[in-house]
Amino acid sequence: MTQRQLHLNLFVYPGGHHEAGWRYHGSDPDRVVDISYYQELARKAEAAKFDALFFADGPALADNIRYASRFRLEPLTTITALAAVTQRIGLIATASTTYSEPYNLARLFASVDHISNGRVGWNIVTTGAAQAAQNFGLDAHPDHGDRYGRAHEFLEVVTKLWDSWQDDALVIDPQTGIFADDDKIHEINHVGAHFRVRGPLNLSRSPQGRPVYVQAGSSEDGRHFAALHAEAIFTAHQNLRNAQDFYADIKARLRGIGRNPDHLKVLPGISPYIGSTTAEAEALHDEFNDLTQPAYSLGVLRRMTGLELSGHDLDGPFPRHLIAPDPDRAEASRFKLVLDIVDREKPTIRQLLHRIAGARGHWVTVGTPEKIADDIQTWFENGAADGFNVMPPWLHGGFDAFVDHVLPILRKRGLFRHDYQGQTLRDHFGLPRPDSLYATETKRSA
Amino acid sequence: MTQRQLHLNLFVYPGGHHEAGWRYHGSDPDRVVDISYYQELARKAEAAKFDALFFADGPALADNIRYASRFRLEPLTTITALAAVTQRIGLIATASTTYSEPYNLARLFASVDHISNGRVGWNIVTTGAAQAAQNFGLDAHPDHGDRYGRAHEFLEVVTKLWDSWQDDALVIDPQTGIFADDDKIHEINHVGAHFRVRGPLNLSRSPQGRPVYVQAGSSEDGRHFAALHAEAIFTAHQNLRNAQDFYADIKARLRGIGRNPDHLKVLPGISPYIGSTTAEAEALHDEFNDLTQPAYSLGVLRRMTGLELSGHDLDGPFPRHLIAPDPDRAEASRFKLVLDIVDREKPTIRQLLHRIAGARGHWVTVGTPEKIADDIQTWFENGAADGFNVMPPWLHGGFDAFVDHVLPILRKRGLFRHDYQGQTLRDHFGLPRPDSLYATETKRSA
């Protein structure tokens, strides 16, 4: 029996994940909208046999573009351009159920799944940034519960659309003149609280049947959604204990509803600072923190907590008492994460800003390649992770260091593949290819 | 002074433009969802120095997929995958103003314009197919006037979004820590009858500033829209006289509102059947017509005219008297085109079906390479066209024949480029790169 294998995604953030990554001397910020910059990175990640590349998204401009590389090419077009220059690596794009139409989004993902020969994943988000609403004619961002209500129905609609052509609907017989068997192409006739969609999709079923369903929310609504629908979950934890609690909870939810817990991969973020000695790694981490700009970091903290600390002494203690109970925030996973750091570590304001600067609250680990590999193995073998979303502090160098120094150790320990075993992202993640809902109906009635 | 040059687009229709093109022995219908089939075609068209590839679209499945290749990969993802394997050729994708959100569409096009280094055009349509409404929660397709009302405002919004970053907004100075000059990134604060959009776009201004605005409607609303906004117009005419009337009308409209008439290129469709002799070309054309299936063609005619003729003798005269005056149809360009053929040619039903089968009402020309080149030159030099959308009856062979046999004649006559002179689609079409609306404001107030 082969050893259980790690899954590794490269989470691509234009200027790197550290908020000052774009300022680091090894980075290449002039190329943030140059597709060849991402194509080179995709080829590297494929050569390293990573499961997938992962792209975040939100349909509004971040309000702190002055100090950081906080914008990007649109993810679906980006992954399409990457699909064209790679053969095996998976490609995961984030898209919002709150600010898209299901018919349009279903087409885009099905098309990229065809173009990539079955390598696409959809990171399903409801969009946290309230300013998005104003780009779509709404007075206010729908609240958390409403967004998830729409998300559940959105997923039902796009799933039906992806299934609306049975896999064998295309006949293409020039002799008889029959191009498609229209008995195997189904209207979905969906009528719900948020959507009425007739279908069928105007595209044949894609190589994976459906893109891989990825999810990234860790609130109660998010966990419930993930347990029902997700096949991979991207999550943020600062320590093993919290990650274990989350892992156990989400896997138990799957068992509870009769889903195979192996069919949802839990992938925490990890942002590694790698040095040939511990001192060298810590010096690297310090170098990044020295490049942070409080005017930027205080804004990030304000969005996470509601606290305006620009007048305060940055080297004084973090004013925990100023955080007011706020039911709107209580469910937000980033808010909980900040509180957790504050309560455990009692940082100064500046220390907290540095903790957040690393990877917006994700796990930052600093050390030698062996130390990073140990961290990964510990989480992987102790019920905290099925793999990781690797978040390099800067690009491409932060990724190169991981591939050159950490990956060989993981391979030597038998934890990570030497080559791809399959063609599709479902193959890489060990997920089944779903039958069409309508194929099942046909079989049942036959 | 250099001679005025033809513009040539390749209009890519998955199985070829003849409705039975997919059945022709030289075609390759099994590859209609295989991106490499289009990538090979794009490379050929680029080697031939064509201005652009053109992709049609509609957000609903055609209801006659049983007999013909009437579906496609989604166009924006398709052109992105083509951008990744070409360097110079333009890429025009159709997208609907009726069934998209301006913020989402603006992002997608801006992103592909970045990815392609400035080679993108948007074919702006309001969507003619009524069944699309039912994929988007509407009881009925908005009427022609309402669709154009939304289209005008849609264009205003996306134009503002594309202009919302001035060209020099990105600073990217690692020393000072300034990534972008946010004084040069503008909220658009659009409030109109159909849309409220705050902006700015979450992507820097693209290489062309805005994609090339292409338009394809020839109704009164369509012409008015084209005169105001379009930079290229794709149009269907069966004969020189009609094409001249249209050309004169549209250029006069531009002059009337103070636009330079050279800044809108009129590009009729042309579907050529090429043989080394006239008899060979006619035999080729007959071969295609013999492959048509009345069950399919009668459906096309029904959608164009409202007439159900499946019980009729196909070799009897076309029953002109059955066409009832219908104000909803009176403005539809395809309807007028059918009436025009009927009134001029007095065809049998089968003859009319063959005329429509060729290229859904576009100009079909049959003959030797010299004859096709003469046709093109005649239209080009007699006020009927600035170039053409070439619509091969089948792929790839129908395009190869044009490139191998007609293009050399056009080049020998000095009518078509031997190489690209510029990098962007605007360069190929001879169109100016627009300044940002907001840059002009800054200059004015300075």
From TrEMBL, chains A, B:
The record ties this protein, via SUPFAM superfamilies, to: Bacterial luciferase-like
What UniProt keywords apply to this chain's record, in alphabetical order?
Flavoprotein, FMN, Monooxygenase, Oxidoreductase
Signal sequence extent: none
- In the UniProt record, does the keyword Coiled coil occur? no
Q: Tell me which CDD domains the record gives.
A: Nitrilotriacetate_monoxgenase
Q: Where is the Luciferase-like domain?
A: 27-384
**A GO molecular-function term, please?**
oxidoreductase activity, acting on paired donors, with incorporation or reduction of molecular oxygen
Q: Which Gene3D superfamilies match?
A: Luciferase-like domain
Q: Which residues are recorded as binding FMN?
A: 57, 94, 144, 148, 218-219
Note the PANTHER family from the entry: ALKANESULFONATE MONOOXYGENASE-RELATED (PTHR30011), C2H2 FINGER DOMAIN TRANSCRIPTION FACTOR (EUROFUNG)-RELATED (PTHR30011:SF16)
| UniProt family annotation | Belongs to the NtaA/SnaA/DszA monooxygenase family.
Cited NCBIfam families: FMN_nitrolo
Annotated protein name in UniProt? LLM class flavin-dependent oxidoreductase
To which species is this protein native?
A: Paracoccus caeni
